[in-house]
Write a structure and sequence with these properties.
This protein has 266 residues and is mostly helical. Helix content is 30%, strand content 0%. The chain has a domain at 8-114: Calponin-like domain (Actin-binding Protein, T-fimbrin, domain 1), CATH 1.10.418.
Length: 266
């Protein structure tokens, strides 16, 4: 797949540019002619003199690898981005000629940006650095850009505080129109006119009655028989919890009025 991405037309353009810049012929096989690193070092020295002070004669493999490494470090200092640079083995061991071609095109683009006459590559845009006053930077903190999303001009205008009482109404029931923005319309749901009017506080005493027994209906505090009945029983005469009570039998003793205050018959 990498071989399929290799562009022969780009190779011809790179060959013409390198040979014109260095004054040396690469040879029939483009990549083999660059493998010793000599022409590459001469290329970067032409673009930026002194980039590679010493170019090794290609006697042994380590000489060639050292030349390629010196070239890669030099073009990094020249401005080629690290992610555009091939590794030494991509060229020396023929593992990725496509990346080697991409690196040389990136070098040509950097040379064109620096003002060299190069017929390939692209000219990079110049860096436009802007400086803002501190007060402008502080103002920008109060603005939410669209990359953060938008609420489509929605707001919380008219919203009531949490827990505020709001009135439910239905125009069909003839209830009064809402007086303020605290009213909930029917799209929020309805209680069908029900209310808590007449409800007593929890724990309030309520009277139990039965109309059939003639018991009087007293007030709204009365509990109907659907709540159950105590059959007329009450707590009349009950003493407070904890008070002592005297137990007696009329067969063995008289009523309480027969005894004096000291507890003996008198």
């Amino acid at each position: 797949q990498l071989a399929q991405k290799y562009d022969p037309q780009r190779e011809r353009e790179l060959r013409a540019w390198i040979e014109a810049t260095t004054g040396r012929r690469i040879g029939d096989n483009f990549m083999d002619g660059l493998k010793d690193g000599v022409i590459l070092c001469e290329l970067i020295n032409k673009l930026q003199p002194g980039s590679v002070p010493k170019v090794n004669e290609p006697v042994q493999n380590w000489h060639k690898l050292e030349n390629i490494g010196n070239f890669l470090r030099a073009i990094t200092r020249y401005g080629v981005k690290p992610h555009d640079i091939f590794e030494a083995n991509d060229l020396f061991e023929n593992t990725n000629h496509t990346q080697v071609q991409s690196t040389l095109i990136a070098l040509a683009s950097q040379a064109k940006t620096k003002g060299n006459n190069v017929g390939l590559g692209v000219k990079y845009a110049e860096k436009q650095q802007r400086r803002f006053q501190p007060e402008k930077l502080r103002e920008g903190r109060n603005i939410i850009g669209l990359q953060m999303g938008t609420n489509k001009f929605a707001s919380q205008q008219g919203m009531t505080a949490y827990g505020t009482r709001r009135h439910l109404y239905d125009p069909k029931l003839g209830t009064d129109q809402p007086l303020d923005q605290a009213t909930i319309s029917l799209q929020m749901g309805t209680n069908k006119g029900a209310s808590q009017a007449g409800m007593t506080a929890p724990g309030t005493k309520r009277q139990i009655f039965e109309p059939a027994l003639g018991m009087e209906h007293c007030d709204t505090m009365t509990i109907g028989l659907q709540m159950g009945s105590n059959k007329g029983a009450s707590q009349t005469g009950m003493t407070v919890y904890g008070l002592p009570r005297q137990v007696y039998d009329p067969k063995y003793c008289g009523g309480p009025e027969l005894f004096g205050h000291d507890g003996y018959d008198g």
